[in-house]
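Weekly sync, protein design subgroup
Attendees: M.S., D.O., the rotation student, P.L. (late)

Item 1: inverse folding check
M.S. brought a backbone from last month's batch and wanted to see whether the design step gives back something sensible before we order anything. D.O. pointed out we never logged the input encoding, so this time it goes straight into the notes. Structure tokens as presented (437 positions):
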């Protein structure tokens, strides 16, 4: 069963909305929807609990959000939020949590993990218990920053994540080791991080709808029917064997390691839809670089290297084209992957039309740098250290705290051809642009 682990998953409630309310008190108690203009392909970036009662949710097209909420009294639509302030407030909260917990990790701008394993006696003495300690931390955040934070406590990351949903809004929910099965049982299988629509559909087809049914499946059946990915998820729900399974999967023939939610990703990618169709090569190049950076960062977090790259473009007339190709060797660094991205992009962008969307996807993964350093060249090791350092700085100070390569430049673009494309995009090596802090 579980080792003596205590994990806290802290989640800021309606983070973007609550930051706006700090600066605009008149928004308190009202349905608030933050996102793009409804006529410009905008989507809902965030919404308040009051707006959710109207059927609005994140990632919904703003036009649909307007349709659902326009008749409700007091609805506030915000199309230009306090963008810089979001990161500032997140950093302030991270500083508080980092000072209170022995092990801290920022999962995103509004979600954080605290590992307080081994501190139970200390917190019992100083605060009266684990829950009281968490209330102390929440009170600090509320007093020093002015925002509410909900915390789920459990003996594993996956259980703490699920507990955090029960803690909302503005509460604490703890699941002790002997309460795990009782807590998990009634949950729908797709409430479990790591079980998506595809696996969920396969499980439902077999009559498995609740976690309690899933946990009753013999390990051999789970392994033979769904493989190690789902098996690691089910074991992570109830015991610590998944950690051993993860290690084994990493070392067997350089197989891909399962991700933090228990599933081994088959691909990692990002895409962006422009507010207005784009033809400027400089802007397209910068967008592709940013997408490549984000995909590579996520890949390094999983300790993976990619062997295949796919580039996606969507023209203004909605025709979508993808081009893919293999790298000369598997890598987790941005430069060689971006070179391939540019090559594939120039193949894909063949029509004399503006682009509505571009995307970058990495796949065909092998083991990451931590497992292959004995075989890496000095150049590979230097680049790996560089981008690992960049990841660390950005995790601590924000996505735009450090810009490198094409992310810092605006290249001289060729003259636009009305209604048409260009002769392609040239490649500038990483590091030749100026750096911005």
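Designed sequence read out in the meeting:
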């Amino acid at each position: 069963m579980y080792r003596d682990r205590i994990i806290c998953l802290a989640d800021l409630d309606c983070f973007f909305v609550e930051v706006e309310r700090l600066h605009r008190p008149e928004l308190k108690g009202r349905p608030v929807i933050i996102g793009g203009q409804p006529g410009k392909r905008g989507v809902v970036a965030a919404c308040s609990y009051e707006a959710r009662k109207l059927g609005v949710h994140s990632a919904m097209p703003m036009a649909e959000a307007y349709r659902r909420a326009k008749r409700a009294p007091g609805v506030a639509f915000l199309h230009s939020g306090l963008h810089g302030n979001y990161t500032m407030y997140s950093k302030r909260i991270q500083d508080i949590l980092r000072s209170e917990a022995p092990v801290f990790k920022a999962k995103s701008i509004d979600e954080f993990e605290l590992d307080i394993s081994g501190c139970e006696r200390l917190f019992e003495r100083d605060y009266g218990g684990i829950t009281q300690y968490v209330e102390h931390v929440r009170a600090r955040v509320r007093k020093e920053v002015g925002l509410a934070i909900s915390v789920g406590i459990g003996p594993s990351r996956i259980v703490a994540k699920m507990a955090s949903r029960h803690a909302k809004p503005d509460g604490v929910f703890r699941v002790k080791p002997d309460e795990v099965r009782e807590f998990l049982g009634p949950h729908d299988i797709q409430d479990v991080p790591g079980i998506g629509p595809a696996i969920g559909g396969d499980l439902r087809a077999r009559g498995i709808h609740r976690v309690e049914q899933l946990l009753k499946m013999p390990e051999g059946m789970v392994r033979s029917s769904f493989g190690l990915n789902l098996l690691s998820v089910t074991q992570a729900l109830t015991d610590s064997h998944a950690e051993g399974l993860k290690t084994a999967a990493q070392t067997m023939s350089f197989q891909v390691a399962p991700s933090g939610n228990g599933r081994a990703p088959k691909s990692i990618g990002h895409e962006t839809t422009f507010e207005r169709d784009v033809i400027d090569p400089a802007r397209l190049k910068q967008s592709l670089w940013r997408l490549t950076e984000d995909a590579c960062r996520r890949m390094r977090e999983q300790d993976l290297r990619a062997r295949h790259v796919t580039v996606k473009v969507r023209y203004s007339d909605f025709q979508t084209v993808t081009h893919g190709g293999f790298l000369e060797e598997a890598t987790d660094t941005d430069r060689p992957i971006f070179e391939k991205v540019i090559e594939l992009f120039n193949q894909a962008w063949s029509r004399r039309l503006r682009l509505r969307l571009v995307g970058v996807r990495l796949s065909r993964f092998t083991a990451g740098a931590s497992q292959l350093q004995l075989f890496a060249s000095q150049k590979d090791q230097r680049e790996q250290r560089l981008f690992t350092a960049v990841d660390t700085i950005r995790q601590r100070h924000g996505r735009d705290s450090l810009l490198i390569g094409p992310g810092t430049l605006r290249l001289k673009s060729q003259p636009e051809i009305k209604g048409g494309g260009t002769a392609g995009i040239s490649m500038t090596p990483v590091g030749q642009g100026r750096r911005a802090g």
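Discussion: Residues 240-262, 370-377, 410-423, 427-437 have pLDDT under 50 and may be disordered. Residues 281-301 form the longest helix (21 residues).
Action: P.L. to compare against the previous round before Friday.
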